[in-house]
Protein backbone atom coordinates (compact mmCIF):
# COMPACT_ATOMS: atom_id res chain seq x y z
CA UNK A 1 0.00 0.00 0.00
CA UNK A 2 1.35 3.40 -0.98
CA UNK A 3 2.00 5.99 1.70
CA UNK A 4 0.01 9.19 1.15
CA UNK A 5 2.05 12.22 0.01
CA UNK A 6 0.90 14.15 3.06
CA UNK A 7 2.55 11.71 5.47
CA UNK A 8 5.78 11.72 3.45
CA UNK A 9 5.73 15.53 3.43
CA UNK A 10 5.11 15.76 7.20
CA UNK A 11 7.96 13.34 7.92
CA UNK A 12 10.25 15.37 5.69
CA UNK A 13 9.35 18.56 7.55
CA UNK A 14 9.96 16.92 10.95
CA UNK A 15 13.46 16.01 9.74
CA UNK A 16 14.31 19.26 7.94
CA UNK A 17 12.74 21.61 10.52
CA UNK A 18 13.11 19.90 13.90
CA UNK A 19 11.10 21.27 16.81
CA UNK A 20 13.24 22.24 19.84
CA UNK A 21 12.75 19.69 22.61
CA UNK A 22 10.99 17.17 20.35
CA UNK A 23 12.45 14.31 18.35
CA UNK A 24 10.19 12.13 16.19
CA UNK A 25 11.48 9.31 14.01
CA UNK A 26 9.34 7.07 11.87
CA UNK A 27 10.11 3.36 11.66
CA UNK A 28 11.60 2.17 8.40
CA UNK A 29 9.40 -0.95 8.36
CA UNK A 30 6.21 1.01 9.14
CA UNK A 31 6.38 4.70 8.28
CA UNK A 32 3.09 5.34 10.13
CA UNK A 33 4.68 4.44 13.48
CA UNK A 34 6.93 6.96 15.27
CA UNK A 35 9.26 6.87 18.24
CA UNK A 36 9.00 10.26 19.93
CA UNK A 37 11.05 11.89 22.69
CA UNK A 38 9.87 15.10 24.32
CA UNK A 39 12.20 16.95 26.67
CA UNK A 40 10.53 18.26 29.82
CA UNK A 41 9.93 22.01 29.49
CA UNK A 42 12.04 24.45 31.51
CA UNK A 43 10.41 25.68 34.75
CA UNK A 44 8.05 22.73 34.89
CA UNK A 45 8.18 19.71 37.20
CA UNK A 46 9.20 17.72 34.12
CA UNK A 47 12.34 19.78 33.43
CA UNK A 48 15.37 17.60 32.85
CA UNK A 49 13.31 14.60 31.78
CA UNK A 50 13.27 12.86 28.42
CA UNK A 51 9.85 11.33 27.87
CA UNK A 52 9.34 8.53 25.37
CA UNK A 53 6.08 8.38 23.45
CA UNK A 54 4.70 6.35 20.61
CA UNK A 55 2.67 7.91 17.82
CA UNK A 56 0.73 5.97 15.21
CA UNK A 57 -1.07 7.36 12.16
CA UNK A 58 -4.20 5.29 11.46
CA UNK A 59 -5.22 4.51 7.87
CA UNK A 60 -7.87 7.25 8.18
CA UNK A 61 -5.25 9.94 8.91
CA UNK A 62 -5.60 12.93 8.37
CA UNK A 63 -9.37 12.54 8.69
CA UNK A 64 -8.80 10.86 12.08
CA UNK A 65 -6.26 11.95 14.73
CA UNK A 66 -3.02 10.13 15.41
CA UNK A 67 -2.91 7.68 18.31
CA UNK A 68 -0.36 8.88 20.87
CA UNK A 69 0.63 7.61 24.29
CA UNK A 70 3.45 8.07 26.79
CA UNK A 71 5.74 5.08 27.27
CA UNK A 72 7.64 6.80 30.10
CA UNK A 73 5.81 6.89 33.42
CA UNK A 74 4.73 10.44 34.27
CA UNK A 75 2.85 12.03 37.18
CA UNK A 76 0.50 14.40 35.34
CA UNK A 77 -3.26 15.06 35.72
CA UNK A 78 -3.91 14.73 31.98
CA UNK A 79 -1.94 11.50 31.44
CA UNK A 80 -3.02 8.22 33.01
CA UNK A 81 -0.93 5.28 34.21
CA UNK A 82 -1.31 3.60 30.79
CA UNK A 83 0.18 6.67 29.09
CA UNK A 84 -3.08 7.81 27.49
CA UNK A 85 -3.35 11.56 27.01
CA UNK A 86 -6.37 13.77 27.64
CA UNK A 87 -5.98 16.39 24.94
CA UNK A 88 -8.91 17.77 22.96
CA UNK A 89 -7.13 17.74 19.58
CA UNK A 90 -6.59 14.00 19.95
CA UNK A 91 -10.33 13.55 20.32
CA UNK A 92 -13.30 15.80 19.48
CA UNK A 93 -11.29 18.89 18.45
CA UNK A 94 -9.27 17.08 15.78
CA UNK A 95 -9.12 18.74 12.39
CA UNK A 96 -7.48 17.41 9.20
CA UNK A 97 -5.69 20.79 9.04
CA UNK A 98 -3.60 19.73 12.07
CA UNK A 99 -0.34 17.85 11.60
CA UNK A 100 1.97 15.55 13.53
CA UNK A 101 4.08 18.62 14.41
CA UNK A 102 1.02 20.40 15.88
CA UNK A 103 0.10 17.38 17.98
CA UNK A 104 3.60 17.08 19.41
CA UNK A 105 3.79 20.81 20.18
CA UNK A 106 0.42 20.56 21.96
CA UNK A 107 1.67 17.66 24.09
CA UNK A 108 4.82 19.62 24.92
CA UNK A 109 2.61 22.59 25.94
CA UNK A 110 0.49 20.27 28.11
CA UNK A 111 3.63 19.43 30.07
CA UNK A 112 4.15 23.14 30.71
CA UNK A 113 0.52 23.81 31.62
CA UNK A 114 -1.32 20.82 33.11
CA UNK A 115 -5.11 21.15 33.24
CA UNK A 116 -6.40 19.58 36.48
CA UNK A 117 -9.96 20.67 35.56
CA UNK A 118 -10.02 18.15 32.68
CA UNK A 119 -8.14 15.24 34.26
CA UNK A 120 -7.48 11.74 33.10
CA UNK A 121 -5.71 10.90 36.37
CA UNK A 122 -8.17 12.10 39.03
CA UNK A 123 -5.87 11.46 41.99
CA UNK A 124 -3.07 13.52 40.44
CA UNK A 125 -5.52 16.31 39.56
CA UNK A 126 -6.81 16.37 43.13
CA UNK A 127 -3.26 16.67 44.49
CA UNK A 128 -2.61 19.59 42.11
CA UNK A 129 -5.84 21.36 43.07
CA UNK A 130 -5.16 21.01 46.78
CA UNK A 131 -1.71 22.62 46.49
CA UNK A 132 -2.27 25.18 43.73
CA UNK A 133 -1.76 28.16 46.09
CA UNK A 134 1.63 26.80 47.11
CA UNK A 135 2.58 26.44 43.46
CA UNK A 136 1.59 30.02 42.70
CA UNK A 137 3.28 31.44 45.83
CA UNK A 138 6.61 29.83 44.96
CA UNK A 139 6.42 30.92 41.35
CA UNK A 140 7.25 27.39 40.21
CA UNK A 141 5.56 24.03 40.23
CA UNK A 142 7.77 22.86 43.10
CA UNK A 143 4.82 21.51 45.14
CA UNK A 144 4.49 18.87 42.44
CA UNK A 145 7.23 16.97 44.18
CA UNK A 146 5.78 13.67 42.97
CA UNK A 147 6.08 14.91 39.37
CA UNK A 148 9.69 15.95 39.90
CA UNK A 149 10.42 12.69 41.69
CA UNK A 150 8.86 10.59 38.90
CA UNK A 151 10.74 12.63 36.30
CA UNK A 152 14.02 11.86 38.07
CA UNK A 153 13.11 8.19 38.52
CA UNK A 154 11.67 7.41 35.11
CA UNK A 155 12.67 10.12 32.62
CA UNK A 156 16.29 10.92 33.44
CA UNK A 157 18.86 10.18 30.77
Automatic annotation (TrEMBL):
EC number, as in UniProt: 2.3.2.23
PROSITE patterns: UBC_1, UBC_2
Keyword tags: ATP-binding, Nucleotide-binding, Transferase, Ubl conjugation pathway
Annotated transmembrane regions: none
InterPro entries: UBC (IPR000608), UBQ-conjugating_AS (IPR023313), UBQ-conjugating_enzyme/RWD (IPR016135)
Domain (UBC core) ranges: 2-156
PANTHER family xref list: UBIQUITIN-CONJUGATING ENZYME E2
Keyword tRNA processing belongs to the record: no
SUPFAM superfamilies in the record: UBC-like
Pfam families, alphabetized: UQ_con
Entry keyword annotation includes ATP-binding: yes
Family: Belongs to the ubiquitin-conjugating enzyme family.
Coiled-coil residues: none
Enzyme class: transferase
Full protein name: E2 ubiquitin-conjugating enzyme
Active site: 86 (glycyl thioester intermediate)
A GO term for molecular function: ATP binding
